[in-house]
Design goal:
Layout lengths: L12 H20 L1 H18 L1 H20 L18 H12 L2 H6 L2 H8 L8 H16 L1 H19 L12 H4 L6 H35 L8 H21 L1 H26 L2 H17 L1 H6 L9 H28 L6 H9 L1 H23 L4 H4 L4 H9 L5 H31 L8 H21 L2 H38 L14 H8 L5 H25 L4 E6 L4 E6 L7 E11 L2 H4 L11 E9 L13 H19 L5 H4 L9
Antiparallel strand pairs: 1-2, 2-3, 3-4
InterPro entries: BCCT_CS (IPR018093), BCCT_transptr (IPR000060)
Pfam family, one: BCCT
GO molecular function: transmembrane transporter activity
């Protein structure tokens, strides 16, 4: 009898089935009835923007203030992972991937279009040319600055913290663990992940749809394609999605990382080209002034709802509120990706990098391109670029016609857009598969290919039917409930960080015994001596081993099973008490080295030192708190020290507040 054919999959039915029903249903509805769906969803979106815009304003403000507080607070030193964990990627690779996923095609699409649209908007027609140019830069800074990255930062930080610190799955449901506890494993958790998957899919589909149109327009401008039509868009999507799938299958360490690094270098080259060959002095001066204006206007921009300026309110809804909704709707996808690549960073390092570096680059980029376009429009083009403000697909390429080497630079721009397209799509495919599989470590390649095909088919279907605008409205609508979810992330994170900090600051009880005065002469001799490698090994093999063996015997008499572990290179010995539910108790001593100052090598008032490397026995613990030098401890003092930490351990696991910190899956590393 033939064996039954089965397809291996890591997809979770509770997530993938309702998600696909909703995604395909909305896309088909938008494609079959594009005008009706767009009108309906637009009505809902406009109601939210007009009547509930304050939810977005307050939410985004809280995100910014919360992250700034964390960055300068005592919590900033907490690492996204175990205390001894280190980053998986170099700083350059990390920033490149973060940046490519966070902004991507939008930088190319809006770098000329947005400043030009603000500059030429009828709302500001009563202002002078100079004031309109200044406003254009200020509002562009506002929409692409710290506020946008704070939205991504809250989601990314929450995910990275609970994933790497608490060893929970890389999933939005994990961010609710302090509030929902084990309920995140059931329907509530599935509902959160379904929402994240749908939001991610809609955001990527609409962005990639608009990106394809811009690529098509650029190729037409360069006379590579005869027209901008659906047939050519199908070809473009087929090629680019194939590249995205290939990149996603090759993994983060290869495809995504390499493409992101290539892209950031290409972007810098393009930036320098426009800066040097454009109105350089004007650009540097306007950027400098723009930074000052942004800083001075930061709080007034942040809280401004334009309630006293009825003529500017439609502009406010169509730009600021739309941007906040757009960034929020994209945050599950970008946040998941940022979290995936940020293991080992400290909270302070994470926030500083996510808020400041991309923001600064965005400001430089938008100043160089946007201010160059405005300068050309005033001084050379006689308003020709302003007239194209409503056609962002072609505006970038028309702008390049006022610079030398137009065709070569246009090819570079198209190449950058293509790479941005691929990096956005491949990281999106990776994130969607991660959500749908509850962060399965290894998934079959057909799943990755399947996500890519689904993206391509639905994006093309909507492009052909004119349903992208309806899907965009749907994406923006989902931002309202998700802004509330993000506020709950902050509540959850505050609770967890407080417990985390208290855990590591937990002191010993007053019943623990400090050093005694016994054997003080021998101790003095040890204090002024410097150990070599062999001496420390001898200390561990003799004194530490003897102390641990006595402890093991005594623990056994009290029906507690203690195990002694020995490791080589470098030598370390530990006593471990296993637990099924809470973390194992672990106290170890290892051979550690440190560099001695050169001047001590010739100091006559100290014993002779042979070289500037000294070794010492250092304690370490299962929860990665900082250890200390134990070379001056007698056997009994070592036993006392272990018991001090064991007594502290028992106090901690008995406190209900510490439940989520001590009941993680960290014991897997001992199995």
């Amino acid at each position: 009898m033939a064996e039954k054919f089965t397809i291996r999959t890591t997809l979770n039915k509770g997530i993938i089935i309702p998600s696909l029903i909703f995604i395909v249903g909305i896309c088909v509805l938008s494609a079959v009835y594009p005008k009706l769906t767009e009108e309906l969803l637009n009505g809902v979106k406009n109601f939210i923007f007009v009547n509930l815009n304050w939810v977005y304003v307050w939410s985004v403000t809280i995100f910014v203030l919360f992250l700034i507080y964390l960055m300068v607070s005592k919590y900033g030193d907490i690492r996204l992972g175990r205390n001894d964990s280190r980053p998986d990627y170099s700083f350059f690779s990390w920033i490149s991937m973060l940046f490519a996923a966070g902004m991507g095609i939008g930088l190319m699409y809006f770098s000329v279009a947005e400043p030009m649209q603000h500059y030429s908007n009828e709302v500001f027609a009563g202002k002078s040319v100079v004031q309109r140019a200044q406003n254009a830069q200020l509002y562009t800074f506002f929409h692409w600055g710290i506020h946008a990255w704070a939205i991504y930062g809250v989601v990314g930080l929450s995910l990275a913290y609970f994933t790497y610190r608490y060893r929970l799955p890389l999933s939005l449901r994990s961010c609710f663990y302090p509030l929902l506890k084990d309920k995140i494993k059931g329907r509530w958790g599935n509902l959160i992940d379904v929402f994240a998957l749908c939001s991610t899919f809609f955001g990527i589909t609409t962005t990639l749809g608009f990106g394809v149109v811009q690529i098509n327009s650029g190729l037409q401008t360069l006379n590579i394609l005869p027209e901008s039509s659906f047939v050519y868009q199908v070809i473009i999507v087929a090629v680019l999605v194939s590249l995205s799938i290939f990149s996603a299958v090759s993994g983060l360490d290869k495809g995504v990382k390499i493409l992101s690094s290539i892209n950031i270098v290409s972007v810098v080259i393009l930036l320098l080209f426009v800066l040097v060959l454009g109105p350089t002095v004007y650009l540097i001066g306007s950027f400098t002034e723009g930074i000052g204006t942004y800083i001075n206007s930061f709080f007034s921009l942040t809280f401004n709802t334009h309630v006293y300026e009825e003529n500017t309110q439609p502009w406010f809804y169509d730009w600021t509120i739309l941007y906040w909704a757009w960034w929020i709707s994209w945050s599950p996808y970008v946040g998941l990706f940022i979290a995936k690549i940020s293991k080992g960073r400290t909270i302070r390092e994470f926030i500083a990098a996510v808020l400041i570096l991309p923001t600064l680059f965005n400001f430089i980029w938008m100043s160089v391109f946007g201010n160059s376009a405005i300068w050309f429009d005033i001084n050379i083009a006689n308003g020709a670029l302003s007239q194209l403000a409503g056609n962002p697909d072609a505006l970038m390429f028309r702008f390049l016609e006022y610079l030398p080497l137009t065709k070569i630079v246009s090819f570079l721009v198209i190449s950058i857009i293509i790479i941005f397209f691929v990096t956005s799509a491949d990281s999106g495919i990776f994130v969607m598969n991660s959500i749908a599989t509850k962060n399965a470590k290894v998934s079959p390649k057909w799943q990755t290919i399947g996500w890519g095909i689904l993206l391509a088919v639905l994006a093309l279907m909507l492009l052909n039917a004119g349903g992208l605008a309806a899907l965009q409205s749907m994406t923006l609508i989902t931002a309202l409930p998700f802004s509330v979810i993000m506020l709950l992330f902050i509540v959850s994170l505050v609770k967890a960080l407080s417990i985390d900090r208290n855990y590591y600051e937990k002191d010993f009880s007053s019943t623990t015994v400090p050093w005694s005065g016994a054997a003080w002469k021998a101790r003095l001799k040890q204090i002024v001596s410097f150990y070599d490698d062999a001496s420390v090994d001898e200390f561990i093999n003799d004194r530490v081993k003897e102390a641990f063996e006595e402890l093991q015997s005594e623990f056994s008499k009290n029906n507690i099973e203690a195990k002694i572990n020995l490791y080589e290179n470098p030598l370390k010995m530990e006593i471990e008490i296993r637990h099924d539910i809470v973390n194992n108790f672990l106290y170890g001593v290892k051979n550690e080295s440190r560099i001695i100052s050169d001047y001590l090598l010739t100091e006559e008032n100290l014993p002779e030192v042979k070289d500037n490397v000294a070794h010492f026995p250092k304690s370490y613990f299962g929860d990665d708190r900082d250890g200390y030098d134990v070379q001056l401890f007698t056997k009994n003092e070592l036993i006392s020290d272990v018991l001090k930490h064991y007594e502290r351990f028992l106090e901690i696991i008995s406190e209900e507040n510490n439940e989520m910190f001590i009941s993680s899956d960290s014991n897997n590393r001992f199995k």
